[in-house]
Amino acid sequence: MLSRFPFPLEKGDKLRAFHQIKGLSEKFDIYLFALSDEAVNDHAKKELEPYCKEIHVYPLLKTAIYLRLVIGIFKSDPFQVSYFFSNTISKKINAEINRIRPDHIYCQLVRVANYVKDYHQCPKTLDYMDSLSKGIEKRITLAPFVFKWLFKLEHKRLKSFETRIFDYFEHKTIISEIDRNTIFHPERNKIEIIPNGVNESFFNAKTNESKFDLVFIGNLSYAPNIETVEYISKFLQNSKFKCLIAGASPSRRVVKAAEKCDQIELHGWFDDIRDAYSSGKLFFAPMFIGTGMQNKLLEAMALGIPCITTPQPARAIGATHNVNIIIAENSEEFKSWIHSLLNDDLLYQRIAENGKDHVKKSFSWKASVALLIESCIH
């Protein structure tokens, strides 16, 4: 049960779901149930068909979403849950589940947990993936004054919901230990850590010329990535560093930030995202409000591109400063390390090679799916 159809792979939850479905399909019949607030084309469905016995897509109508959000003001569930939960869709899903009689139900993100929480005819797994409440908490201080109350309310509701939904599921998973430690259930240590992996194609180095000093890639409508682009724009003003910003669905704020900085070239999604990564000498990810595991770091490291980031994303992937990644916390530190990496070939090669080795040893979709099966899906 997913809150988005898992293709194209421009968002982290889609990437995780796609590779888990692909891996699980080798041993199990997969019945895919996905909500979608945008049209799902035939090409996207065809990408999933080889791995699924049945595919069910449930469109979320915009007018119904807005109505649920307004009603949600007077309820205790998080707005993210109200956004995705439809009574009409719930009845359809329950009818299909009763027809299929699954041996196990796997539910990604608390957003859709209400659809299956009361089904008791088989074991269920809830993949928290990351801590949504912590992500919202980090955004409170950055939110415009008129919206701070809304973020505070959503943080309070998510924190409560993440705790109480725990007991409805026999198995729970999450992407990293850092995220597990922010779930406030007294038995949170029972949540199994299932990391992401990296597609093996990322270990095949691209030969593109590195036209940019820096590169940042991500879903450019996602709040933490938007904040990152705005930070990069300010950081690069009056700088000689050239930076490529690439990714799906650039928001107005991203476009505006890029226009303000002559050192930035903004590009949409690449057919082969490795072309975007390899266009930069360094992967620059000054992320201050994100949670979970940043696959963008894993992919850049797998390609042998040294990464510079902030403490939380580095901790989430178990990386070590000045060994396989560079960690900095402010503009002066970022600037110093960028200069060092671009001017010290030995340092550059050491971070690049160690980063690639770290990902190769620790982040495989095959190993991740095997751990999921062993821990939850017996």
Rounded to an integer in angstroms, the radius of gyration calculated over CA atoms is 21 Å
What would you give as the CATH superfamily of the largest domain? Glycogen Phosphorylase B
Low-pLDDT residue intervals, each spanning 5 or more residues: none
Strand tally: 12
**Number of separate helices:** 16
According to CATH, the fold-level topology of the largest domain is: Rossmann fold
Mean pLDDT: 94
| Share of residues in strands | 5-15%
Explain what this protein looks like in three dimensions.
There is one protein chain. The chain has 378 residues and is α/β, with parallel strands linked by helices. It has two domains: 12-197 and 365-375, Glycogen Phosphorylase B (Rossmann fold), CATH 3.40.50; 200-362, Glycogen Phosphorylase B (Rossmann fold, 3-Layer(aba) Sandwich). It has 16 helices and twelve strands. α13 links the parallel β11 (307-309) and β12 (326-327). The radius of gyration is 21 Å and the shape is globular. 45% of the residues are buried.
Strand and helix layout:
Elements: H1 12-24, E1 31-36, H2 42-48, E2 54-59, H3 62-72, H4 79-84, H5 87-100, E3 105-108, E4 124-129, H6 132-140, H7 148-164, E5 171-174, H8 177-180, E6 192-193, E7 212-217, H9 223-236, E8 243-246, H10 252-259, E9 264-267, H11 273-277, E10 280-285, H12 295-302, E11 307-309, H13 311-316, E12 326-327, H14 331-343, H15 345-362, H16 365-375
Parallel strand pairs: 1-2, 3-4, 4-5, 5-6, 7-8, 7-10, 8-9, 10-11, 11-12
Helix pairs in contact: 1-16, 6-7, 9-10, 12-15
